[in-house]
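Subject: design request, 144 residues
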């Protein structure tokens, strides 16, 4: 049986169009509801033929990501269907950090919207001033 599967895999590689490459992509093992948090049992890595230069980035999909719509069994898991979880929620009190060499300043503020790690978010400071920063952790925003 393994020999047959190996032969079929080689056949699919040989039949791939010119300029295509074989990549391992995360795929849903079963149907997943909207708003569900992915677990290890929801994700399976499979070989797939992709056009070279295709703008599909599936490298970061890991357990803990959240579905934005219903995902069907066998579907490739990629943005915008799945996204990293929000580490900051709208109207949440957050630590606003500013670092410059040996100086580390932390103030409190309120996030104006929900955001995932690495994304920009506006924070309303206690003084009423608004500053933009990058989410660096749960309830933490760093000013650049």
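Subject: RE: design request

Done. Sequence follows.
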């Amino acid at each position: 049986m393994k020999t047959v599967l190996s032969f079929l895999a080689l056949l699919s590689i040989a039949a791939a169009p010119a300029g295509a490459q074989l990549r391992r992509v995360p795929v849903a093992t079963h149907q997943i509801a909207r708003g569900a948090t992915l677990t290890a049992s929801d994700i399976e890595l499979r070989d797939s033929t992709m056009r070279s230069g295709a703008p599909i980035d599936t490298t970061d999909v890991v357990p803990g990501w959240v579905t934005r719509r219903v995902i069907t069994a066998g579907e490739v898991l990629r943005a915008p269907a799945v996204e990293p979880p929000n580490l900051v929620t709208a109207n949440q009190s957050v630590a606003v950090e500013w670092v410059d060499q040996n100086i580390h300043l932390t103030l409190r503020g309120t996030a104006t919207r929900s955001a995932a790690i690495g994304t920009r978010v506006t924070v309303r400071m206690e003084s009423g001033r608004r500053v933009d920063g990058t989410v660096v952790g749960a309830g933490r925003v760093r000013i650049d």
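The mean pLDDT is 84.
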